[in-house]
Each structure stands twice: as C-alpha cells, then as structure tokens.
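Subject: Predicted fold for Putative membrane protein, 136 residues

User T.R. writes:
Posting the sequence so we have a shared reference for the thread.
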Amino acid sequence: MSTRNTRPWRRGTSRLAKDERGSATIETLLITPLLLLLILAIVQGATYFNARTTAHSVADTAYQEQRLYGAEHNDGLTAANDLLDDVTAIENGAATVTQSPTTVTVTVTGEVPTIVPGIDWTITSVVTGPRERWAD
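User M.O. replies:
I've generated the structure tokens; pasting them so everyone works from the same file.
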C-alpha cells in the first residue's frame, strides 16, 4: 500500500476544519445587534399599546365629565387637558370636545414616546356617546 496522498486537494483541510478559534466571537457579533433590535422593538410596541390605552382612558374620562346633565361647556376639555398634563405615556397630547344636543364626541391625539429611532407613531382615540337629558 502506498503512503502517497491520493487526494491532494484535501491536504490540510482537516487542520482548518478543526481550527474554530474565534467563531464564537463572530457569531456573537452577528447575533447581538439583531437581538438588541428585537428587544427594543418589543419595548416600542409595548409603549405604543400603553399610549393607545392611555389616550382612550383620557377620552373616556373627558366624555364622562362632559355628558353629565348640567355640565358646563368646557368641563370635558378641562378634564382631558388636566389628565394629558399628568400622563407621560403620550407626548404632545391634545383633546377636542364637540357636542350636539344629544351626543358628545371626545377626540384625543398624541405621539408615542420614541424608543427605537426613526419610528414616529401618532395615536388617536375617539369616544362618542349620548348626553344626559332631562325628559319630561
């Protein structure tokens, strides 16, 4: 039997295949930014849903104030602006209250706080319902 290598193209490949020094570092460098981006996207999504829920709560509170029998013209708007000043889940929040003899509509708009750069979301929540009336 000959000791001559019958496959010269495979010479030295076993040595290269066994030498994997530094591969964990390269894998970590590739995966870490993607993992951090995924975590930030999840937190940004949670911030969006928190802001949306807060906007709806502010609109509902303003509606409940404005719909009452004998409520002044700006009671709902005052309640909404007081709440928007106190919350941190909505940036640049604004409220509008429109009413007719039978209905009240409250609209709250604002911006979601940005965690991931480049994502600018605006939220709007509208609550509409009947006004309390004195019926004879």
